[in-house]
Amino acid sequence: MASAITETAPTVVPIVEEKLTLTGLAREPIKYSGTLDGFESFDVTPVIGREFPNANLKDFLRAPNSDDLLRDLALTISQRGVVFFRKQDSLDNDLQKELVQRLGELSGKPSTSGLHIHPVANSGREHSVKDDEISVISSASREKLYKDRNTRKQTSRREWHSDITFEPIPSDYTLLRLTELPKTGGDTLWASGYEVYDRISEPYQKFLEGLTATYAQPGFNEVAKRNDFTIHPGPRGAPENVGEELRAEHPVIRTNPVTGWKSVFAVGTHVQKVNDVSEEESRHLLDWFVSLIVENHDLQVRNRWQNPNDLAIWDNRSVYHAATWDYDGLGPRTGHRAVGLGERPYLDPKSIGRREALAKSE
């Protein structure tokens, strides 16, 4: 059962339009109602990941108490970081999209936030589907679009990222459903941003909470130019996500509004620099954040995709993920991804870390 956190409602601090602030429109974390208790589940690791081995998500969507089930599921995903379901053969693209959107709506996202349209991986690409809100994750497409990433390498640390943090309104939940699997390989890993935050000393936490970062992905523009197409100009799922310059400013430390817990947000390939520090200091901080992930396997979870239509749903506000490109010659790997959009990232000064929250709930 997910832990019941009973924190008082934080003070509401209005967002300053057209200007980044380190506080945003705070809201009270949602509370677990117990609807998932009747479904078999287990925590994959102590820190991150939960699996429901027998649950059917289409049944969740059509149940009389569907809203309660999905609200509890959203909270479970946000607390555990990532949740796994097996053999969801009855879930098609439309139901996948409905599920992601309702998870966000029922957990309080803005009414203007829909499903993301990827600037590159949309219906205009080869190996895609005729739906801009479904990105096809295809090994064949990757080989064509990202030729420079198919070379031999000695480290995979650059694979770690959270989805679309370069947008002014980035993702809340992502659902990835694999439809075609290689004979072996192609695992996906996730890591807990809550736990990264909790492993930093309190004085350093306070320092980082005063910083913002620039999030950008010029690489997508380069891919589009190299392959003779233009990126999607927007709106890409929210009115703020427009234009061909994929760039935004967000806090380094972020509050997850569903849980009220802090996490390190400025991690991975979409983070360009930490603002207001020197170039050397920025590089040190960003490298250090990734090192905290790769040097601490106990804050990671690794999923082996076992069957077609296995799926994972994760909260990009508090976890990072990395693909494993180890299946060359072992068959194609294809998945359908729907990415929900959440709120403009903020740091609530009254929010706390995961470990402190769980200790208070005992």
Description:
- InterPro entries: AtsK-like, TauD-like_sf, TauD/TfdA-like.
- One of its GO terms (molecular function) is 2-oxoglutarate-dependent dioxygenase activity.
- Keywords: Dioxygenase, Iron, Metal-binding, Oxidoreductase.
- By secondary structure, the chain is an alpha+beta fold.
- The protein has helices spanning 57-62, 66-80, 93-106, 139-145, 193-198, 202-208, 218-226, 279-294, 354-361, and strands at residues 42-43, 50-52, 82-85, 135-138, 171-180, 188-192, 212-216, 247-251, 253-256, 261-264, 271-274, 300-303, 311-315, 319-323, 334-341.
- The chain has one domain (42-361): Clavaminate synthase-like (Double-stranded beta-helix, 4-Layer Sandwich), CATH 3.60.130.
- The protein contains nine helices and 15 strands.
- The chain has a seven-stranded mixed sheet. The chain has a three-stranded antiparallel sheet with strand order 12-6-14. Strands 8-7-11 form a three-stranded antiparallel sheet.
- Helix 2 (66-80) packs across helix 3.
Judged by helices, strands and strand pairing, the structural class is: alpha+beta
Summarize the biggest pleated sheet: 7 strands, mixed
C-alpha termini separation: 13 Å
Q: Helix tally?
A: 9
CATH architecture heading: 4-Layer Sandwich
Give the % helix. Answer: 10-25%
Mean pLDDT: 90
Number of spatially distinct domains: 1
CATH superfamily: Clavaminate synthase-like
Report the radius of gyration as a whole number of Å. 19 Å
Q: Which range does the strand content fall in? A: 15-25%
